[in-house]
Amino acid sequence: MKRVAALVAGVTLVLTALASQAHAESSGMRITGFASKPELRPILGTAWRIFIDGPIEPNSGRKLEEFIQSKQVPGESHVLLNSRGGNLFGGMELGRVIRKYNLRTDIGRQGKADLADLPSSGPGECHSACTLAFLGGRFRYLRDDSRFGVHRFSYKTKQENETDLAQIASAAIVAYIREMDVDPDFFTLSTKAGPEEIYEPTKAELTRLRAVNSGYERTVWSLESRDGFIYLKGERDTVFGINKFMLSCPEGERMMLIVIFDPQGREEEAMSLQAHSLVVDGDGEAIRPADKQIVNGWLNAAYYLTARQLERIEKARTVGVMVQGTYSSPVFLGFDAMPFEEGATKLAGITKTCNSLKKTPRKR
Fold first, then answer.
1. Which among 11, 237, 276, 334 is least buried, having the fewest CB atoms inside 10 angstroms?
2. How deeply is 60 buried, as exposed, middle or buried, from its count of CB atoms within 10 A (0-12, 13-18, 19+)?
3. What is the pTM of this model?
4. CATH of the domain at 261
5. What pLDDT, on a 0 to 100 scale, did the predictor assign at position 350?
């Protein structure tokens, strides 16, 4: 245990030294935050814009937490990172504080004041340890003109137990990536660049690895059971609230679709809208709700599906339901692009069960 503790301490000291050599800047990490004016909060909300600039230090997480607590920064505020890197372990602790306080992350630097007298954000850069801090955001964005880069950590001078140090550091980073619900393959991006090089993955690559989610958490598909029947459920949280897409056949009836979503405070409007559409791979088709109600502030709507509609879902890449005033309306409530590939692999079990129930005579 003493040897492991010494190695961990060595990793921290070595990586701290490397960070200061590779990213020497005139001052430490700087945090500035801005809240919208009280009279604009009914329109803009209460979220702050927090700008973090400069090298990431071992105590950067503590600095941010002190700032949040002293300023009473609300959850769902936006953190804009602009840093060439710094201490890797400090980056992970900063990310954990960001996640603890339910903040969102983006890459950018402070710009001029906008019409609401809040600083806008210009393009920024986030390299090395900064990319680990970035993963702390529950919802993570990347503007097209900002730079996101990773590189392999290395030692400027020969270190004793260098292999052991690297293994411990790598294990800690991979564990953190998993903790943030990002694909562990994110760690392998660093191997695409040499020790003195920066690899800048594309936004598409970062999205595939769930490092960037643009306001939509990963959809989780599961087979569940309730009140004697099983159903397939897809669920995700988004910046617009919860999304649920469920398929089942209660009591052997034809397949039923149930959707649940957050109407974002527009419950009465959601109940009054008459144009409902099943959306498969971006293509909408009118469907009539068999039932709809507001439960705990969420719209719950149920639909019986035709055989053709079910067949479309079985082959879908994305699914959703839109609720509109008219079918040609440019705005809608609901969701229209929930990833379904994982759900499709589980749907066969539901349809098989439904078919067997239909063949079983009901007891009188």
1. 237
2. buried
3. 0.83
4. 2.60.40.1880
5. 81
